[in-house]
Amino acid sequence: PGWFPRVVPARGRKSRHDPPAKSKAGRLKLPPPVDPEELLVVLERYRQHRLVLGALRAEFRAEVLQKKREERLGREDSAELLEEHRRLMAWNDEENARQRARRSERLRKEAEEEKRRKLEVMEKQAKKMEAFMKEKEKEVLQLQEEAKSFITPENLDARIEECLDNPRNYNFAIDKDGRVVKRTVLS
C-alpha cells in the first residue's frame, strides 16, 4: 500500500557506519561552481525582497492597529459600556470579598487543626516519655535487687565455699522437647 516511516528499508540503503564503495573511495565531493557576479546579483535581489516584504508587513500592522484604536475609541464613548463596566467591576469586587472571607475562614480552620494536631503529638510524646521513664526506673530497681546477689571481695570466700559444697553438673543432653535425656555422673 505504500511506504511507512516505521519500516526499515531492506535493499539499496547503507547504514551510516558502512565504508564507501571501492569505486567511490578516491572521489572528492566538490560543491558546484558559483559565478561571483551572479551571487552578488542574487544577494542584492534577496535583500531588496526582504525590505519590501518588511515594509508591507509594517504597513498592514499599522493599519490593523489603527482600526483597533478607532474601534476602541468608538466603543468607549458609549454610556452603556461605561455602566456595564462599572456594574461588572462592582460584581468583581463583591466576588473578591466573598472569596477573601472564605479563604480567611479556611486558613483559620487549618491553623486550628494544625494547632490541635501539634498538641496531640506533644501529648503522645509526653506519654511515651513518661512510659519510658517508668520502664527505666523499673530496670534500675531490678538491677539494684540483682546487685544484692553479686559477688564482692567481702563475700568471695563464702561464695566459693557454697559452690564447693553444692556442685552442679552441666554435662547433659536434651531431646527436641527440651527434656533431659542423658546426664553424666560427676567425678
Automatic annotation (TrEMBL):
Predominant subcellular localization, coarse grouping: mitochondrion
Database matches in InterPro entries: Ribosomal_mS26
Keywords, ordered alphabetically: Mitochondrion, Ribonucleoprotein, Ribosomal protein, Transit peptide
Annotated stretches, region: Disordered: 1-31, 92-113
Listed GO CC annotations: mitochondrial small ribosomal subunit
Pfam families: MRP-S26
Biased composition range(s): Basic and acidic residues: 95-113
Subcellular location: Mitochondrion
Coiled coil: none
Protein origin, superkingdom: Eukaryota
Family of this protein: Belongs to the mitochondrion-specific ribosomal protein mS26 family.
Protein's recorded name: Small ribosomal subunit protein mS26
Record organism: Tachuris rubrigastra
